[in-house]
Here is the input.
Amino acid sequence: MKSLYKLSTLLILSVFVISCSDDDSPGDELTGSGMVKIEFDNSVAGDDLILGSSYTNSQAESLTINRLNYIVSNFRLTDTQGNVFTYPKEDGYFITSEETGNTEVVLMDVPAGRYTSMTFGIGVDQEKYLLGAEGQGDLLTEAESTDMMWSWQAGYKFLNFEGTFTSSTVPENTYFQIHMGSHGSSLDNYKETTLSLGTEALVSDEMTPIIHLVVNAGDILDGDNKISLAEQAVIMVSEEKSPKIAENTANMFSVDHVHNGDGSSH
Here is the structure.
């Protein structure tokens, strides 16, 4: 009887382990292709960014942010096996805008799989820029309409960050403008960032993951490189400060969570 009891127990445990293993391996059944949605949740000082609101940075400057637009591009997704899916370059440039509420990027026709990390660029790379005006496609038109270009020869604004500020040395409300980008081919501020997703993003013809990123706008001036507005309130073509702002901007993204499902909620 004891032998029969032990055998029955082992069979039950085996069935339980197999069932759990099946539940934990949804990637084995992923087929076809699907969409990946990426949400850019702009924030500052740990709170959601609300245009017109104020915060104080580490340099005791009080900022009121009125505009935050930036270009993201060249998305690549890496799966559990180390395979990399590169999103088609001709479709891979997006302008996100807190002003318009256009803060979601949708990648189409992504091969089914279990993705664990994501790489993307901030700005427009030299390869794209050197295609000339004819090679820019819809990006050029959209950049012109959203104030993300200086001029064709000068290039794109990768970041358009504007508002007003005061400080102990600047008591009157003063306008600030941070327009960071490459300047033709002479000053290349294009950067890339790679983020571990933490949770596998599951893609198939039935599953559309939502990757929720938190974007800390405070890092633009207050990242590894500290930028004082009291020292210089308008920064555009600056060989010294633009590269520092580009480094800060590339590090302002982090993964909050991944929601796996049909893409309708998170």
The longest helix spans residues 2-23. The longest strand covers residues 62-79. The CA atoms of residues 50 and 179 lie 20 Å apart. Helices lie at 2-23, 126-129, 138-145, 219-222, 241-250.
